[in-house]
UniProtKB/TrEMBL annotation:
Protein name: Ascorbate-specific PTS system EIIA component
Organism: Streptomyces koyangensis
One of the Pfam families matching this protein, by short name: PTS_EIIA_2
Subcellular location(s) per record: Cytoplasm
Source taxon at top rank: Bacteria
Length: 268
């Protein structure tokens, strides 16, 4: 398991950065990845192009953009950076703008950073921790908060619906599958996967419902295997009609919103 504080070292954190627009904000996060040898300038260009091509779906929670692109030769190793902006900027997202925090991910694959993504989701979903991160005076102080949060488990929550778990497939042995989808399959879709799995765990449905994070191209081929797709509004528009329900989630860190979407999916 790679801890969040390992993927975001102190030198990959900058606070109160001035950025005139979203491109500059993403480039500031990308420059930190370049400076510590995680990726090259070409990957920063790819992160920006990802937003140009797919829209502002990387703005996955109010005030928070998770910048990333597909794994590519421009990624030298898996790592992340953290940029807190001096003034928020608009990415063009209809619900979560303006953005004052940009976290960038450069991933060689979707495996190494799974646990760190889950930790980041829990951290940003906690209002008290979020306020501490926003008020951290130095990169060292912010990194200490990340380090303190490493290994913290999800707190106990109220149980899910009283209804029984969903029936399995016709053979009685198949799981239900839900796809979480983004443009690249290793960033925001994995973030949403972690939040959905938290909710399924609370419900006691985690053995009956599996979750797979994937990209838009693969999702169209895999749709027939799933009962639903959870994604952003921008990616939902890109997918179009895939033959199964496509559910929009605005805040990928919100277990409450995902709980509501899951209840709507299963009518419980």
């Amino acid at each position: 398991m790679v801890a969040l504080s390992e993927l975001i070292p102190p030198e990959a954190i900058r606070l109160d950065v001035a950025a005139p627009d979203w491109r500059a904000a993403v480039r500031a996060a990308g420059d930190l990845l370049v400076a510590d040898g995680t990726s090259t300038d070409a990957y920063t260009d790819e992160m920006i192009q990802n937003v140009v091509d797919n829209g502002p779906y990387i703005v996955i929670a109010p005030g928070f953009a998770f910048a990333h692109a597909r794994p590519s030769p421009a990624v030298r190793r898996t790592g992340m950076s953290w940029v807190r902006l001096a003034e928020p900027v608009e990415f063009g997202h209809d619900a979560n703008d303006p953005v004052d925090l940009v976290v960038a991910l450069a991933a060689q694959d979707s495996a190494a950073h799974t646990d760190a993504m889950a930790a980041l989701a829990r951290l940003l979903a906690d209002p008290e921790q979020h306020d501490r991160l926003q008020s951290a005076a130095t990169p060292a102080a912010l990194h200490a908060l990340l380090r303190a949060h490493d290994g913290v488990e999800e707190p106990a929550a109220a149980p899910g619906p009283a209804s029984a778990a969903p029936a399995t497939g016709r053979t009685g042995t198949e799981q239900h599958k839900i796809l979480t989808v983004c443009g690249n399959g290793v960033g925001t879709s994995l973030f949403l996967k972690n939040t959905l799995e938290q909710v399924l765990g609370r419900w006691g449905w985690d053995r009956q419902v599996s979750v797979e994070a994937t990209d838009t191209i693969s999702a169209k081929g895999k749709a027939s295997e799933a009962v639903a797709i959870l994604t952003s509004r921008e990616i939902a528009r890109t997918l179009g009609d895939v033959g199964i329900p496509v559910k929009v989630v605005q805040d990928f860190t919100s277990t409450d919103e995902v709980d509501h979407v899951l209840r709507d999916t299963y009518d419980v």
